[in-house]
From TrEMBL:
It comes from Chitinophaga silvatica. This is GNAT family N-acetyltransferase. SUPFAM superfamilies: Acyl-CoA N-acyltransferases (Nat). It comes from the Bacteria. Residues 88-237 form the N-acetyltransferase domain. The keyword Flavoprotein does not apply. GO terms for molecular function: N-acetyltransferase activity.
Length: 237
């Protein structure tokens, strides 16, 4: 085992979900190590996250400890180009509170997340997580900017922006279902890149799920390259 602590409590997750949540560090990867940790955590944790940059050979462990492959998380990035013109329908969201429409777009952005796909977490918790995410983005607590695409007074798309690892970072991005395939996603991506350039960043990144094929295609069409892949397992003890 690594000298680094093999697992830690996830404080935010534990407080928000209402039960004890832990995660292992990436040095933990063998079935034996994971079994030892899960056995040790049985009296402490309800949910344990195990993640690694490669798929783990832990099928038997998953069966013994109620485990699932909850997510394959992909990180895309690209070098920021000089600003180009963007749609006049895109503007900064400056209201002090998130509208119901904006919250619905925020929820739509997370339908492929592991908090949505793991049935044991539940729809209510998933919605609460993403509702808080968009509310705190609007208040600029966890985002530096929120851009929206508005047509005829209706919000049809949105993107939240911030910084991570010295890169411009797209947090949430979504387009209303009945407005997809109309170029709104591409326009929001360009606006995000312009924002990153004006903030002085060299690169911009975004995280999505492998299962979210439309999002992956959007990023790849806009010049993003896959730079990181992570496999997330959930174990319910």
């Amino acid at each position: 085992m690594s000298e680094i602590e093999p697992y830690k409590r996830r404080d935010w997750d534990s407080n928000f979900l209402g039960y004890e949540v832990y995660s292992t560090n990436e040095a933990v990867r063998t079935a034996t190590e994971i079994c030892e940790i899960l056995t040790d955590l049985k009296s402490k944790a309800r949910l344990v996250y195990v993640s690694h940059s490669e798929p783990l050979d832990i099928k038997q462990t998953m069966g013994s400890f109620n485990g699932i492959l909850a997510d394959i998380k992909l990180t895309y990035a690209k070098k920021i180009n000089p600003p180009s013109s963007i749609s006049p329908d895109i503007k900064s969201y400056t209201a002090s509170t998130a509208s119901d429409r904006l919250i619905q777009l925020g929820l739509a952005s997370g339908i492929y997340s592991r908090f949505r796909t793991d049935p044991k977490i539940g729809i209510d918790k998933y919605e609460a997580i993403y509702r808080e995410w968009i509310v705190k983005s609007v208040s600029r607590i966890i985002a530096s900017e929120v851009l929206v695409y508005e047509l005829g007074g209706e919000l049809t798309g949105m993107v939240t922006l911030g910084e991570k690892n010295n890169c411009a970072d797209i947090g949430l991005i979504a387009v209303a279902e009945n407005y997809r395939s109309h170029g709104i996603g591409r326009a929001l991506m360009q606006a995000a890149e312009n924002w990153g350039y004006l903030q002085g960043y060299t690169n911009i990144q975004v995280v999505t799920q492998r299962a979210n094929i439309p999002a992956c295609r959007l990023y790849e069409k806009n010049g993003y390259e896959l730079i990181k892949e992570e496999y997330f397992y959930h174990f319910w003890l």
